[in-house]
Amino acid sequence: MLKKVDASHLKTGMYIHDLSCDWMTHPFVRNRFLLTSEDEIRKIIDAGIHDVVIDCARGLDVDHAPTLEETRQSTEAALVDIAARPLIVTRTTLGEELKRAAVIRRQATGLVRTVMQDARLGKAIELDSVSPMVENITESILRNPGALMGMLRIKNKDDYTFLHSVSVCTLLVAFCRSRGMDAETTYQAGLGGLLHDTGKALVPDHILNKPGPLTDEEFAIIKKHPRDGYDILLKSPAIGPIPLDITLHHHERRDASGYPDKQGEGAISELAQMAAIVDVYDAITAERCYHKGMSAAEALRKIYEWSKFHFHPTYAQEFMRCVGIYPVGTMVMLESGRLAVVIEPHETNLLAPKVNVFFNTRRNVYIKPETVDLSRPLGFGGGDKIVRPESPQKWNVDPMRFISVG
């Protein structure tokens, strides 16, 4: 039996099944292991991990701890409540925005690559070349956030560092917009998102792209990148305080377990806290050679759980509303046994988006793509529901192929 246990109740002899944190946080080579020393327990607590999942069949039990299924049901109930609040309506259709979003994705990725190369050579960042890209991303989000956000969910492993920066910019702009922030603040936040990982230009490639867990020494080098990025951006005279703050503090956590300054609740700015959520969400949903990406739905559940300690709970819930429980581009299994890709969130029910169905798993055949509004009843274009998100890799399909019908 799997149970969720507060880290303060850990004892040697318990078997850790899941450390319940993002993969860049914990100091262990693996996620599953038998606790054999007090030192291991101390390392878990020092890493800011507040609860873990234990396997009672492989180690000591805890009588009072809830089962993993009980905690999941509690989280699910909270998510259903969050999903029932209205969204901002988009101005253009997904199909209209997709071509423009594809161009922006390509150009922005190339721009971040250039920024990183300049930073590695000790050059100052040319903000005149970066600003128009942030404006283009912002305009795309205003027209239809699902297009660019959906397109950026598919990442080339070789370009991950660059695409991650573009994704963080895009998600942060969308987050600011959904929270009703003014245009200048949104622009500055987007600039910070695009440049937040500039310090990684100084991390050796063999560490940045290591196909496996980092050693303590390598992790210490990685943890220097917020300060290095901050110092690099200071060379650009026109840089404002918001991009500097996001770059320096996007790895800070409310319980002061983050880095580089171990800021706690009350010390971390609103935008840095928002950037922290966005950064983790994009990182844990990405497929890497050493880390299997989570589905967007599972990642949002994790962020909701971690918000008890690491993230501002209100911001975490607002971010979930912003991207949707099933974001545009998510591949899902329907109750009918058909595969579909999400193309548009519903305005008042994120659990019932519009989808394009394209494959019948019961007959194992592709079918003519068709748009289904899951909020509608049977006979009115609906009559189906999402059972679970599905991995595109499992079915060897690119969901973006079926994101537009007609």
Automatic annotation (TrEMBL):
This is HD-GYP domain-containing protein. It holds the Pfam family HD_5. CDD domains: HDc (cd00077). SUPFAM superfamilies: HD-domain/PDEase-like. Residues 139-335 form the HD-GYP domain.
